[in-house]
Amino acid sequence: MPGSTTLRSGHGVDPIEHGDAVRLAAVLREISGMLATEGPTRFTDAQVSALCGGQVEHRQEFAEWVERVGRELTAKVSA
To answer: Within its chain, how far is the Cα of 6 from the centroid?
Structure first.
């Protein structure tokens, strides 16, 4: 459907409005930076732990996943 991005799971299709997909991609890029960089805007270990089900040691994997999903979503909404 024009103006939307389709997110597929194993059991169906869920559309997301194009504007929402653009906004989500921007949020993922920002989160990626907050996970990966040093400085005052970096997520603390406690925040990462909350996002990763209590597993702060998963910061790197989570940061890579967020960056990859954000990049893929950005490519889809920019096409």
So the answer is: 16
Structure tokens at 70: 């954000």
- Cβ proximity of 25 and 16 under 8 Å: no
What's the CA angle centered on 3, arms 67 and 16, to 5 degrees? 50
Tell me how long the chain is.
79
12: helix, coil or strand? strand
Q: How many Å apart are CA 59 and CA 68, to the nearest integer? A: 14
Q: Please give the structure tokens belonging to residue 60.
A: 């790197």
For the segment 9-42, what is each residue's pLDDT rounded down to a tens digit? 565 666 888 899 999 999 999 999 999 889 999 9
